[in-house]
Amino acid sequence: METAAEPENLAGVRHIILVLSGKGGVGKSTISTELALALHHEGKKVGILDVDLCGPSIPRMLRAQGKAVHQCDRGWVPVFVDREQSISLMSVGFLLENPDEAVVWRGPKKNALIKQFVSDVAWGELDCLVVDTPPGTSDEHMAVVEALRPYRPLRALVVTTPQAVSVGDVRRELTFCKKTGLQVVGVVENMSGFACPHCAECTYVFSRGGGEELARLAGVPFLGSVPLDPELTRSLEEGHDLTQEFPKSPAFPALTSIARKI
Ligand code: ADP
Predict the structure, then answer these.
(1) Pocket of ligand 1, beta carbon within 6 A
(2) Which of 136, 155, 172, 194 has its CA at a distance of 20 to 30 angstroms from the CA of residue 163?
């Protein structure tokens, strides 16, 4: 089968992975960010494309809010979030005059921006581009899939929490993947237990094993459980540098193991 000519800006991008979740609040943006940081600590060059147009939270997580995206002859230059310039980020958050402003665009305008994100960001050489999508299945998902599918086999990682309701929502997400030809590389269970920093005992605050069960039912790999990190919210609120702080997090070993599997 002949494939269409790929946008020049994607030529140096080796792998693209979409991060999906059945609903909001399960930690999809957190996992996208942490996955990128874990890949970075494995020595990879990573990009993050935040297509969560209505709730772009990654610039804030990576202390990049308010930074400007510049134009070059190949399109937009993404924002670098670390000193070595090995983690780059593009988000609608950089294009809004006021970062707290809600994006109230209709479908066609969103689709047009996503197409531009896919073709007009000058990523350079990347080992992996992590695409953070909105929760559920929306116009943005279809737009990103349609914009990338002609050029690449698309792969997705699905995030859920241990509770049944999230697992039910994520089942619909898996159906979406099947229908649109997205290959699910696996399921990640986030907020899976709380590792006590004092005695190292893990307490399963919510129920347990939902992600694993879902992966088994869907016939896709279970990539791992990411524990609750009590320091994460504080770190974000106090504006700590996650690129430095993340290796100390109880979530770091889990994400490193997941990063090696994708
Ligand atoms: P989503 O992208 O699915 O809407 P977020 O990544 O924005 O979810 O996470 C929702 C909230 O949960 C955020 O406040 C985030 O800091 C917190 N959170 C996510 N994962 C964890 C975790 N493993 N430990 C502690 N807090 C977490």
Answers:
(1) 21, 24-30, 57, 135, 190-191, 226, 228-229, 232-233, 236, 251
(2) 155
